[in-house]
UniProtKB/TrEMBL annotation:
Species of the source: Streptomyces fildesensis
PANTHER family: DIPEPTIDE TRANSPORT ATP-BINDING PROTEIN DPPD, OLIGOPEPTIDE TRANSPORT ATP-BINDING PROTEIN APPD
Cell location: Cell membrane
The protein, known as: ABC transporter ATP-binding protein
Major place of residence: membrane
Every ABC transporter domain range: 22-270
Pfam family of the protein (one): oligo_HPY
Alphabetical UniProt keywords: ATP-binding, Cell membrane, Membrane, Nucleotide-binding, Transport
Top-level division of the source organism's lineage: Bacteria
SUPFAM superfamilies: P-loop containing nucleoside triphosphate hydrolases (SSF52540)
Topological type in the membrane: Peripheral membrane protein
Length: 353
């Protein structure tokens, strides 16, 4: 299991050696309306060769966290505090020159929309080869040969011909494969996949996930998979971090979180998923309410305005006291372990079928 051993803001335990370590990360955006608290005290670890799934609704802070790891934020309007260590190297406050050397080489990202991420003016092969030439000093001939090799690795047919095609000549699934080839061409130690199967049909989704698993075994990369779909993350991740309103609300192995979720928000995510075994006319169980404004997030537990069970805690604790995330497996919730188990068995499991 991925090493996730300390509460928010604390350093790793002596003897632990995560490849990526994020500690008490805060990300603030300055806007005309005020300060947006996009990430609010996030901590997690990731080992080499492991996959961490980060799930949550839009606006939960998933993508902002990982763009910050890569240094792809605007320093003029963004304030970042906390610690980000990549293989022992501090990234918070690192210079643009340092980050440019790391991006595409030691860490890379698969963006959500390859049609937007790929330039329509250059061939797919040229764009795949660019980071390889930049970081290795290879010439155009060597870069093109490497691009062909990578296109073959990700399953593009006739790679020697398709390397000279433009993005619009690729299907959606092929463009996503091309993005994976581009991100892996320098054999990065950390690969961040931001919703890599969005807008793809189920068959192509499965192919992309299988491809990521196969390439991870070959290259040994650590992977962060960002998604809102627990079904997707369950197929590839080793561990799971559930985020809400810029905070981590639950973490553990994928099996633990899927089979025995402990946070009401995780219960809501699971309950809202359609199931193959359910009747076609059976209504879904959406999470009530709307995600909070990060300009003025709720006090206490950020999820309490949408939670079904604050009366079990009693008083105003949920609305006034922010619950901490326990070390290791656990959830940031004021419900006792006995209450969580009782509610899950009596009310949540019947919804899941």
């Amino acid at each position: 299991m991925t090493t996730m051993t300390k509460t928010e803001g604390e350093p790793a335990l002596p003897g632990s050696d995560p490849f990526l370590s994020v500690r008490d990360l805060h990300v603030r955006f300055s806007t005309e309306d005020g300060i947006v608290k996009a990430v609010d005290g996030l901590s997690f670890d990731l080992e080499r060769g492991k996959t961490l799934g980060i799930v949550g609704e839009s606006g939960s802070g998933k993508s902002v966290t990982n763009l910050t790891v890569l240094g792809l934020h605007n320093p003029m309007s963004t304030t970042v505090t906390g610690e980000i260590l990549l293989d022992g190297q501090e990234l918070t406050g690192a210079s643009n020159r340092t980050l440019e050397k790391l991006r595409g080489n030691k860490m890379a990202m698969i963006f959500q929309d390859p049609l937007t991420a790929l330039s329509p003016y250059y061939t797919v092969g040229r764009q795949i080869a660019e980071p390889f030439m930049k970081h290795t000093g290879a010439n155009k001939r060597e870069g093109r040969a490497k691009a062909v090799e990578m296109l073959e690795k990700v399953g593009i047919p006739q790679p020697k011909t398709r390397v000279d095609d433009y993005p619009h000549q690729f299907s959606g699934g092929m463009r996503q494969r091309a993005m994976i080839a581009m991100s892996l061409i320098c054999n990065p130690d950390l690969l961040i996949a931001d919703e890599p199967t969005t807008a793809l049909d189920v068959t192509v989704q499965a192919q992309i996930l299988d491809l990521l698993k196969d390439l991870q075994q070959e290259f040994g990369s650590a992977i962060i998979l960002i998604t809102h779909d627990l079904g997707v993350v369950s197929k590839i991740a080793d561990d799971l971090l559930v985020m809400y309103a810029g905070r981590a609300v639950e973490r553990g192995s994928v099996r633990e979180v899927i089979k025995s979720p402990q946070h009401p928000y995780t219960w809501g995510l699971l309950s809202s998923m359609p199931r193959l075994s359910s009747d076609v006319n059976e209504p879904l169980s959406p999470i009530p309410g709307t995600p909070p404004s990060l300009l003025n997030p709720p006090s206490g537990c950020a999820f309490h305005p949408r939670c079904e069970f604050p009366e079990l805690v009693g008083g105003t604790r949920c609305s006034t006291d922010r619950p901490g995330l326990p070390a290791g497996r656990g959830a940031a919730c004021h419900l006792t372990a006995e209450q969580k188990q009782s509610v899950f068995i009596e009310k949540i499991q019947p919804r899941l079928g």
